[in-house]
Write a sequence for this structure.
């Protein structure tokens, strides 16, 4: 996918990172590798987010060295790309050359990836005490598959066992939380495409269609508008399936009288969007569905006010739980007396609301996170309260993406139907 992002973004990102590195240090990065699918097939390539953030390069077999204090100016930023292979170009398409890599990244020194270890050896053994390494760090993420970044770290440590080592993840997580104007514009474009896909669903959802058919409508709009695809596994969940938080089978029939919960977002120029909406399959909410939907929407409107400078994810979560507890009492799910007697370690609301309300988004749909860090202008976060009543087959989640500013938050899905009347009118 051609991103056509101005290289000034990547130049600035590298400068910000290098300003945080101590003297006599170097930071090294490797691109992602193709992931095997089956037989001789691979999954579509997706660049490692930090590598893209620093280079804009969307190709495998690439490396980056940042050595801000190096006495040799051409070694302060060095990009390595895969050497030209005529056979590979014939079978898989034209390969990037050094000139293109320089234009995309803004890096003057571009070499063949075959030269990486020789150049690194020269840099690491000349006035370098610390090597900063890069791996993905997210508190709730676990993966049993060893990534190329993890293997890369092991290899570098074996080559330079007497050097000190540092982590780039804490620095980059901090930097990536604040979005530049370019990043905001791309994210807004991603949200606009996702909004178009949801509007198409409002026109095409009806009883006796299948969830996967609605997913196909979404994917059609994504690709029609130059998005690379989904930012995450899409959730198109009818009826009781909406009570499964990460439902992704999307293979059930849509029944008359049920709700349909969407949690969808396209990836555009490697940046994510994240939208949740809940609509009636037949175009009209029942009275009970209206009560539950209105409860979630009221809470959403209240907590949106907290997306201001100085707010925190933790504050939003705690406020939502308190407000939703009151709404659940009104909905007859339990009583105030039940709450007074509940086990404080297992509050009653957790049966009907099990997740957090907010996360950062950017190059990853669950981007850099610190739920205690106060909000700053330039952060983009989700706002996504919900309620899940399994015994009634009612699952409702409503989600917007919000930009933190010096004043009121900016809703990146502004104008998209969210009120009951708006949804029913659009479906008519």
């Amino acid at each position: 996918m051609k991103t056509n992002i101005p290289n000034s973004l990547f130049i600035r990102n590298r400068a910000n990172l290098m300003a945080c590195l101590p003297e006599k240090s170097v930071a090294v990065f490797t691109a992602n590798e193709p992931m095997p699918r089956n037989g001789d097939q691979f999954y579509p390539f997706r660049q490692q987010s930090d590598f893209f953030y620093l280079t804009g390069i969307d190709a495998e077999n690439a490396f980056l060295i940042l050595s801000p204090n190096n006495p040799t100016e051409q070694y302060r930023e060095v990009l390595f790309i895969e050497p030209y292979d005529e056979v590979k170009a014939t079978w898989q398409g034209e390969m990037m050359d050094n000139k293109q890599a320089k234009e995309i990244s803004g890096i003057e020194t571009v070499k063949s990836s075959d030269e990486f270890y020789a150049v690194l050896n020269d840099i690491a053994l000349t006035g370098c005490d610390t090597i900063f390494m890069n791996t993905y760090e997210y508190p709730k993420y676990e993966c049993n598959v060893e990534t190329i970044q993890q293997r890369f770290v092991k290899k570098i440590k074996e080559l330079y066992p007497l050097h000190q080592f540092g982590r780039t993840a804490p620095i980059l997580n901090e930097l990536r939380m604040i979005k530049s104007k370019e990043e905001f514009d791309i994210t807004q474009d991603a949200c606009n495409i996702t909004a178009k896909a949801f509007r198409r669903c409002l026109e095409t959802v009806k009883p006796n269609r299948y969830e996967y058919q609605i997913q196909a409508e979404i994917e059609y709009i994504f690709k029609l508008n130059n998005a690379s695809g989904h930012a995450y596994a899409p959730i198109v969940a009818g009826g009781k399936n909406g009570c499964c938080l990460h439902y992704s089978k999307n293979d059930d029939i849509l029944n008359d009288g049920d709700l349909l919960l969407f949690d969808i977002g396209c990836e555009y120029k490697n940046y994510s969007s994240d939208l949740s909406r809940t609509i009636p399959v037949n175009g009209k909410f029942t009275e009970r569905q209206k009560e539950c939907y209105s409860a979630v929407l009221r809470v959403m409107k209240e907590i949106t006010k907290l997306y201001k400078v100085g707010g925190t994810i933790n504050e939003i979560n705690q406020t939502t739980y308190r407000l939703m507890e009151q709404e659940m009492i009104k909905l007859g799910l339990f009583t105030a007396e039940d709450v007074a007697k509940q086990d404080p370690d297992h509050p009653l609301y957790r049966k009907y609301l099990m997740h957090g309300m907010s996360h950062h988004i950017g190059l990853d749909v669950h981007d850099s996170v610190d739920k205690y860090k106060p909000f700053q202008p330039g952060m983009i976060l989700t706002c996504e309260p919900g309620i899940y009543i399994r015994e009634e087959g009612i699952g409702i989640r409503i989600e917007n993406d919000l930009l933190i500013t010096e004043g009121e938050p900016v809703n990146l899905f502004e104008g998209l139907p969210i009120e009951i009347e708006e949804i029913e009118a659009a479906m008519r």
The radius of gyration is 24 Å. The chain has a mean pLDDT of 95. The first strand starts at residue 25 and ends at 30.
